[in-house]
What we know:
13 helices, 3 domains, MetI-like fold, about 85% helix
Amino acid sequence: MGHPTTTTVAAAPRAALASLSRRLPRRVNMRRNLPALGRKLAISLTSMAIFLLLWQLSAGYLYGVEATARIERTTQEQGADAGAAMAACIASGDVSCKPNTLPFPREVVRAAGLLLADHRAIRTKQAEFAAETAELNAARAARGLAAITYTGRPSFVDQIGTSLKTVVVGFLISLLIAVPLGIVIGLNENLRIAFNWMIQVFKPVSPVVWLLLVFMIVKTLTLGSDTDTSFLISSISVGLCAMWATLVNTSVGVSSVNQDYLNVARVLQLGIGKKIFRVILPSAIPLIFTGMRITVSVAWMVLIAIELLAQSPGLGSFVWEEFQNGGSDSNAKIIVAMFVIGLVGFLLDRLMFMVQGRVSFEKAIG
């Protein structure tokens, strides 16, 4: 009766030692990697500091150029007293005479704070509106009528959300077209030859042209309808403009599957469906995902121009409205949007990279 207990007691330290031995290499590797991580962090922080310094100096130089030109122009048109008054106004920092040029980093930070504060204010208004119309909307719902919704302007954060929705829908549209078509083209050499001219001709077409084409078709199909089609037009345009990388990579990936795999599938007498999903697609996934990552990047890049022209309430319309507004903080808000666009694009690429690493047996390159 005593032996099992002794064995169990003796086994416990062994298990603890085994667990500790598995953890020790990780800790040793972490300690070894700390200098390298510290060096990379220091290099990144240094490059950021240099970037901010160059930005500050460039903004200061352009500010001086614009201020000098404005003072000289005022002096020539209205006289020396008016020129002196303009110089004093600019020196005071008055918004009414502030040079409209590249903003300083601190102004961009301030603009970001204003946009967040504006978002919170709009959210408060929406909540107040919902509370005020709750009883009325309940009565309308009882009568089968649509609810009254808040129709005020969207905030900057809301516009980011709209742009993300547009990209996601456009990306899904591109996948629905490019992946099945790429598989079909990749399986047949004659089809690759037949579709090659189409890919080469339509791949470099500008997003503006795709938008106009989609606009013609959607407006014709929805003729007489009061439905707002700007989101639909933007999404389809993004999908058509960005799908070519996925189409080409899927076709190349399918056509370059190892012949030995296909011979095994033939010996096992796999049907076309099983052959595609069990042999061809697993082998082609690395190339397909590379095309999908490019598609996401292209979709996000062309989105701004497409939203601007389609008047979809996203980041594209925000940038254009701020540019036309010409307010004292418009340039700073545009720079905020630029950083947000770049950061979101980077995060989308990292997300696709992570998904590729999960579903592909080959190491993703990123």
